[in-house]
Fold these 2 entries.
Entry 1:
Amino acid sequence: MATTYADLVQAVDAGEAGRAILDPATDEVVGHAPEQTAQDLDDAVGRAGTAQRGWGSRTQRERCDLLLKAADAVEEWAEPLAELLSREQGKPLNGPNARFEVGACASWLRATASFELEDTPVVDDGQTRAVLTYRPIGVVGAIGPWNWPMMITIWQTAPALRMGNAVVVKPSEHTPLSVLALCHVLNSVLPEDVLQVVSGGREVGAAISTHPGIGKIMFTGSTATGKKIIESSAETVKRLTLELGGNDAGIVLEDADPAAIAEGLFWGAFINTGQTCAALKRLYVADAIYDDVCAALADFARGVPMGVGLEEQNVLGPLQNAAQFEIVDGLVEEARRSGARVLLGADPDRDAAGHFYPTTLIADIDPENPLVVEEQFGPALPIVRVADAEEAIARANALDVGLGASVWSGDRERAREVAARLQAGTVWINSHGGVDPRIPFGGVKQSGYGLEFGVEGLKGLGVPQVING
């Protein structure tokens, strides 16, 4: 079987009848995405529901074996998938970007197939025997974002399939080709109709949240859209796992070494050019080392190349779409007008091709400035001076989101004490944003609810049933 980029695009391109998808780095046409409708969704749910009955009757081992074969298929197609992802999403091939994302898809499939989830006796005392087990939900709707389109599709679909569900995927309108291509590769291994993709706009997303044939929704995206899904899914009482907006805080204590942490801080904030839900988006630094941290971070940032993703030397790319460029640009300009100090960046070439926004560091900024309290989702990091850990904790917890956070310190025990006081689903020590398929992940407050990854993630994609007797 040929595994070239041309073969992959041909398999998913809808031709001139579809919607043109542009490369955010060059404005060139990447391909054409099908424009499907709520009727197409209804047909897909019907086929998935029929296929699910046979899929759900297979053993866990049989389903896991197919996930392992799917991982092999992803690796076979790895380079074409990475090239398509780079062209459509904008992220470079190298660094923690396109090749990394495709590799993570294969790794996640394998990890998901490796977890043990057996029936659990909860009482067995000679008189009463009760066993907890998990049954398939049926059809799961997976609504994904444009920032990590392939990897988050795997996060949603792999555990759903492992638990015996069929899945209907709705990719972002900005990155449909990447997800169509990934699912094309997966479907070369999976039974027919178990995994469906419906590429369309808001009409399709809205129909997923109300469709009576869908038993659960996995959604990664904005808090505003998550709230709409909660409301519209209530009529059919769907199960929900929602990973919503972040605006993650990082806290640097006065005993940290600025030079030693600069690289970790940078990638915590600027992975995927800042377009990551759990990226570090506001940094609180103790006054005693504030200037040194600013200098060390700026020194490191200056050496990180940004440009067209297919050029091998680049590790930062453009913003994925014009709307996100305008959000970042507006927040940075407002911060500059307020008197905040620009350490680096903040002067995009608005006439150039693509949506490139330069790596930007903003110091001496008011803690209530919109760049701090609103999620920028791009390559612009505000650095806030604080008196001590108490002020940092208070400011970190002041917002209504809590996906992730981090604490940076030379004293790991002290860092853990601070971490325990932060209102976030995950708190990293001396790093930020790393995820692991074995470790549960989810948010608090308006960053959503439900856990993904690991055995806890599997449980969220099954219906618990107690057999008592």
Entry 2:
Amino acid sequence: MTTHTGPTRPAPEGFLWGAATAAHQIEGGNVNTAHWEFEHAPDTTVEEPSGDACDSYHRYPEDIRLLAEAGLDTYRFSIEWARIEPEKGIVSRAQLDHYRRMIDTCRDAGITPFVTLHHFTVPRWQGRDGGWYADDVVDRFRRYTETATRILDDVEYVVTINEPNMMVNQTEAKIDTEQGVNFPGPSPHVAQVIAQAHHASREVLSGLGHVKSGWSVANQVYQAVPGYEKERDEWGYWREDYYLEQARDDDFIGVQSYLRTIIGPDGPVPFPDDVERTLTGWEYYPEALGHALRHTHEVTGGIPMIVTENGMATADDSRRIDYTTGALEGVSVALRDGLDVRGYLHWSLLDNYEWGSYRPTFGLIHVDHETFARTPKPSLAWLGDLARRGVIPAV
């Protein structure tokens, strides 16, 4: 057992401890998405296609079992729109049943299922019609949500859309983790369309009566070079704060944090060459999560927050534990100061497909992408021990 030996504070009653994944990044064979089409296009910029990913479409019972055996109690996973609605208006009952079995498997293992409806990918037919630029995309997403409710009768937590601010001005997310996020730039029009889709989805989910719903926002911890606070605020509004404002009436907001971004007169300022970097090229900065929680609290007006993603791409699992310790210390300080934080879901449960490459390893579990063998890392036992003891690392 890997145990945290530093100072701790008790977690709030009912605090969620878990890990997160996304369908396209772990399922494998997700051939009906526009992203699969993009991966295999003759002029693609993708380094390697997703292929079989982690084969979690078939191996999800093992993944859920490993999460539960470690001591965690919550699994955030996404259901795939492209599988459920393979052609516009055509619903696959078999695929709905598949995701219902995932929910049941969580329940049987004592795990809270935390379902995401949309995690970057759209069906091929939606992509060809313009993705988030399609004239009727809001209605399409509402109908997809209505279809998904058939399997959500005992699901308490639902994320409508993952990181909408990362999808703006793209027909769907084509994230280049090696070169950073926010590519190619914000589009206020599409931001407003995605917000309308979120609100439409939330209206459907709220009608069920038992679902708590919200969306998750990528918090980039915008910090200003002294004297450039105005430029920071202008840079960040359509890249982050607009989406936080849209969550003010939601049941919760998902806080997703990995890094900070320093803004000067012309936008982001490069970090010095000598700072420690993760396998995605980002600065090692675990303090980002504490900053993200405070900023989200301020902009949303204090709605409940759940950390739906936080982690580090590294080949050194001891650094993952160090990073997560620092991040959770930020959660502890936020709780001490009265912020309403209700859970921590690590990214990611598995070493998965990071939108173009398998090289950035975020997982608590190593996956051999030839044999699909799962090998839990010490970080999984470490995080599970915190969950079992109900304590959070404290400063």
